[in-house]
């Protein structure tokens, strides 16, 4: 196991080129695929300590007891820190869809369609895709006629539950910790 401040190498599979087959009695052998590594520094190490008494420990078996609710709050604090750390990585995303300062899904799903195009263009695997929205984008999507009309095809989650769980090839969720980005003043002579 590694410790905070250490780093680990994560191996990434390399592309495998094709070649013409020449029939023969002996296989010509295959070249070794060229893989690469990404170095990941373990720079987050969190805890959520709190004091408890012997009396509090006695409530571990009692649902709703102080110790159980306090453990839930400690877990929530750690989860929010991890969540925030992962969500901060959006700054390193090379592609974007939508208009800065405009909450998506107000009138259509065109921003998702644009993002899907980038994913396909960059050879992202089509399965197991997740879409995480801020609460306002989530509420906008709930109001889109396409999702509300899905009721006619047997779906009840938008109208009855106020949720979109799977649509357009994505598992949908919302997250209150989504980062809001304010673009700064552009300077210099940027190249496109």
Please provide a written account of the structure.
The chain has 192 residues and is α+β, with helices and mostly antiparallel strands. It has 6 helices and 5 strands; from the N terminus they run ββαααβαααββ. Strands 3-5-4 form a 3-stranded mixed beta sheet. It has a two-stranded antiparallel sheet with strand order 1-2. The longest helix has 22 residues. The radius of gyration is 24 Å and the shape is extended. The two termini are 44 Å apart.
Order of helices and strands: EEHHHEHHHEE
Q: Beta-strand percentage? A: 5-15%
Principal-axes shape call: extended
Largest sheet: 3 strands, mixed
Helix content: 25-40%
Q: How many E strands?
A: 5
Output the structural class. Answer: alpha+beta
Lateral strand order in the biggest sheet: 3-5-4
The rounded Rg comes to 24 Å
Instruction: Indicate the low-confidence ranges by residue numbers.
Output: none
Average pLDDT reading: 84
What gap, in angstroms, lies between the N and C termini? 44 Å
- Tally of individual helices: 6
């Amino acid at each position: 196991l590694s410790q905070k401040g250490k780093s680990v190498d994560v191996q990434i599979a390399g592309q495998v080129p094709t070649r013409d087959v020449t029939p023969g009695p002996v296989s010509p052998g295959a070249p070794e695929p060229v893989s690469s590594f990404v170095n990941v520094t373990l720079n987050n190490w969190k805890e959520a300590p709190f004091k408890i008494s012997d009396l509090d420990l006695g409530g571990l078996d009692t649902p709703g007891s102080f110790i159980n609710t306090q453990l839930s709050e400690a877990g929530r604090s750690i989860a929010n820190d991890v969540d925030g750390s992962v969500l901060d990585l959006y700054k390193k995303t090379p592609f974007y869809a939508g208009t800065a300062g405009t909450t998506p899904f107000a009138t259509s799903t065109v921003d998702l369609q644009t993002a899907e195009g980038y994913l396909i263009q960059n050879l992202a695997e089509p399965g197991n895709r997740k879409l995480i929205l801020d609460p306002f984008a989530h509420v906008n999507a709930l109001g889109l006629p396409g999702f509300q009309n899905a009721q006619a095809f047997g779906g009840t989650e938008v109208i009855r539950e106020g949720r979109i769980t799977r649509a357009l090839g994505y598992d949908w969720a919302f997250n209150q910790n989504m980062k809001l980005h304010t673009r700064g003043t552009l300077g210099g002579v940027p190249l496109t």
